[in-house]
Every structure is written in C-alpha cells, then in structure tokens.
Amino acid sequence: xxxxxxxxxxxxxxxxxxxxxxxxxxxxxxxxxxxxxxxxxxxxxxxxxxxxxxxxxxxxxxxxxxxxxxxxxxxxxxxxxxxxxxxxxxxxxxxxxxxxxxxxxxxxxxxxxxxxxxxxxxxxxxxxxxxxxxxxxxxxxxxxxxxxxxxxxxxxxxxxxxxxxxxxxxxxxxxxxxxxxxxxxxxxxxxxxxxxxxxxxxxxxxxxxxxxxxxxxxxxxxxxxxxxxxxxxxxxx
Length: 237
Fold this sequence. Notes:
About 25% of the residues lie in helices and about 30% in strands. The protein contains 6 helices and 14 strands. Strands 1-2-4-5-6-7-8-14 form an 8-stranded parallel beta barrel. The chain has a 5-stranded antiparallel β-sheet with strand order 10-9-13-12-11, with no helix packed on it. Helix 2 (about 65-80) packs parallel to helix 3 (about 95-105). The two termini are about 30 Å apart. About 30% of the residues are buried.
C-alpha cells in the first residue's frame, strides 16, 4: 500500500513558499483562549490537504457542536482529505468527548491521537517510532485499526549503566555526522563506551525516513506526517 506523506506547515511557511509540496497539512488550529470556538482555521488550501487541530491551548468549555460546524464547513469548502486531532494532553474528558463527536460528525476521515483513539471507529494517530524498537512492535497494539503515523525526524540517547538504561530526547542539531545503519530499527546509531557507562546516540536521516515510510506503507499505515521545517533543506535542493 502506498502511504500518503503529508508535510505539516505553518501559515507563514505556506505564504513564504509559492511552490508547495504535493501533500500538506495545515499546522495548526487551536482551541481559542477567548471563545468557545477553534481558532486559526485556514481560508484557503490546496485540495486534498489535511487540517490539524491541536491542544497546545488546553480545551476548557469549548463547544463541540460549534467546532464540528467550523471544521465541517472548512473541509467541504476547501476539499480537505482529512482532519487530524493532535491531542497530546492526557486526562482531559472534554478532549475525549470532542474527539468522539468529531470522528462521528465530520465529512472526512478523522485521525485521533492514541491518547484518545481507544474505542473510536476512526484512524489512530501514533507518535514517532522510538529508535530502540521496531516499526512492527510500535504498530502491534493497534492491529486492526487504520494508522496515521507521526514521522518526525527526532533523535535520542540511551545511557547504559549498572543501574539500567536511561532514555533522553536529543536535538537534531547535535546528531553525529556519521554512524552505523540499523536495518531492523531503520535508524542510525553511534556508541561511545566510557569507564562506567556506554552512551548510544540514535537518529534518523532523510534516507532512513524514506525507508521507514516504505515499510510503514507495506504494514498498512495509510498516512505519515512530518514537519516541513525538518525536511525543507532536502525539498529545496
């Protein structure tokens, strides 16, 4: 199965790039801090784009009916191919209720983050594949569900000591220039043994990401989402 790969772009990035990628996602609509509506909805988009609604501003008394009307109108007017509910704040009953309502009401596929997708009849949006586990293992808990995958080019370190393993995220600007490719994990790595510990650095290159997307499509993932700002250099070359 061919996976559809969307690049998430801010309004500023869309305005600054007259030649847009073939598949983009509008990043991002928010819960308005001043009303019960969603804010920052797009006025124009290429046909087939995805609209992302996030919870950077926490949901608090926002009206599911009104937000459903806003998004439905936007999707129909602009010809969007889907809506992604990128809710990353756990434990909000209002977010769960809104996800359920939108998944049932919107006239397009609705991807819901794994925090709130349990029990819903909609695609589930999974976080990036951790570098230390395989793609298949990452997908296994959601077998039988359509999966949309966050394909961010993140990086991490693993520090091994007698006490165990400590995992930590790492900025991509600190990634080594070269390393070894791990075929089963679809990432690069380097190891730095020290006297009382060993530090592993794991990261994905653009080439690793393409391999990950190909394998994800073969495993049934239907959509991947990356940040335009992470892939901009490759796109402009």
